[in-house]
Design brief:
Length: 167
Amino acid sequence: MEELADILSGLEQRINVYKNKLIELQKRRDRLDDEIKTAKKYLELAETLYRVEKNKARSATPQQVQSEDQEKGVPKGSEEAKDFLFSPFKFTGLSIPEATYVLLKEEGKPLHAKEIYQRLMEGGVKIRSKTPVTSISISLNRDKRFLRIAPNTYRLVDAEVQREERR
């Protein structure tokens, strides 16, 4: 009887190990699915920009390029096409402090953590937290480049801005 209990106990342990491994693999698959979606979007946007530039290089009539682009939803002009390609994923791959630094530098004024969160999400930063605004505040409080000027409101430290302006 004791031998049977040992066998059952061993099987329960294996079941738990396999369950945990399955959960870990599913999480990894979800992360890879997100990366695949992002890569597909980049590819689609790059191909669109390529077609626009290729059509311009061929000196096609403006009406032909314009009609093809309008069908695909591509903005007119090379600069607009580049903005279309790069703006949706401006902060992809950056950490919260790195992306916030770029954002505040471009903005030139302090922002509340809620606004920072919204802009970072729009720019491609993925924050997997139940309380993303709190996560942003904690990250910025730990980074010497940022100064908290009001509750959950941050700006760049003046020395950082001056250093960047000198470059």
